[in-house]
Write a structure and sequence with these properties.
Layout (H helix, E strand, L loop, with lengths): L2 H15 L1 H9 L1 H34 L2 H29 L9 H26 L1 H28 L4 H29 L3 H27 L8 H23 L3 H37 L1
Helix pairs in contact: 1-5, 1-6, 1-7, 2-3, 2-6, 2-7, 3-4, 3-6, 3-8, 3-9, 4-5, 4-8, 5-6, 5-7, 5-8, 6-7, 6-9
Length: 292
């Protein structure tokens, strides 16, 4: 399968698998909330593992550490202001549609934004190598499932019908596919600065883990215990996803390295051909002089 095929397959799978959490809450709400209770801390660990075991190490191989770390900071700040912008827009819409809850728009817009960013992050991983893309997709799916459970629950609580909730979230999930393919095609044709893009992607995932998920774990965790179930699941997420990242890099071929090698071989072949042509041309000139 080509790298673009991997991008298409995993971006669609990532978007659709995240809907499992939402469908779960429609079928059985109590089971969905219990699942989210355990999936959320695991997702935080998965995000941290993807950032520190894969995205940042790959980034500093593609660009200088300074540019990668600065782009990581830029990713965190960008996501902060994107969310701030959503809240600002919601504040100014409030009261304009008295018969509709404006929070619906905020939830849908926020979910679509997250899915779009997920698509960019997934594509950035596959632009580096197939193992990095697979590991990044795993981290994205891990945090998307509990997020979708929360989004489905919010929309249902605000009076939206189950059918509309499913339809809205399917359309929103397509943003992952669209932005993944677009990012990959841009990177393939114009050679995006991969180190910087990986840094920004790491910043997005760090922001989600540190500002969204981990504060929730502290708020809902056991106050009298240093290590509770959520802390154990966070550590498990780090260890399991970290192990999967290492396995992926060991077992899955690195497409781009092969492409670069093939490209180099092609250039060397062309250079050898040019040298041969030049030698033949010089021989012809020598023969012609001898005849004269």
């Amino acid at each position: 399968m080509s790298t673009l095929g991997y991008v298409i397959t995993f971006s669609i799978a990532g978007g659709m698998v995240s809907l499992i959490g939402g469908l779960l809450i429609i079928s059985k709400e109590s089971l969905a909330h219990k699942f989210a209770l355990y999936a959320t801390p695991f997702a935080a660990g998965a995000l941290l593992a993807a950032v520190f075991f894969d995205l940042l190490p790959e980034g500093v191989e593609k660009a200088s550490p300074e540019s990668v770390f600065m782009s990581t900071l830029a990713g965190i700040l960008t996501f902060f202001f994107l969310e701030r912008g959503l809240h600002f827009f919601h504040h100014h819409r409030h009261g304009q549609d008295a018969d509709k809850d404006p929070n619906r728009f905020l939830v849908i817009a926020g979910d679509t934004l997250h899915n779009a960013v997920d698509g960019v992050v997934i594509a950035a991983g596959f632009l580096v190598s197939i193992p990095t893309g697979i590991a990044t997709t795993l981290a994205v799916v891990a945090h998307e499932i509990p997020q979708e459970i929360g989004d489905f629950g919010l929309l249902l609580s605000k009076g939206m019908s189950r059918g509309k909730v499913i339809l809205v979230n399917i359309v929103s999930a397509l943003a992952t596919f669209v932005f993944a393919v677009t990012t990959y095609l841009l990177g393939s044709s114009e050679q995006l600065p991969l180190g910087v893009l990986l840094g920004v992607s790491a910043g997005f995932l760090l922001y989600i883990a540190m500002s969204d998920i981990i504060p929730t774990l502290h708020a809902n965790g056991a106050k009298h215990k240093l290590i509770d179930a959520s802390a154990a699941l966070l550590i498990a997420g780090v260890l399991i996803v970290g192990l999967l990242i290492n396995l992926a890099h060991d077992l899955v071929p690195h497409d781009h390295g092969c492409e670069e090698a093939s490209h180099s071989s092609l250039e060397e072949s062309e250079d050898d051909h040019d040298d041969e042509c030049e030698d033949d041309h010089n021989d012809e000139i020598d023969v012609h002089k001898d005849e004269e």
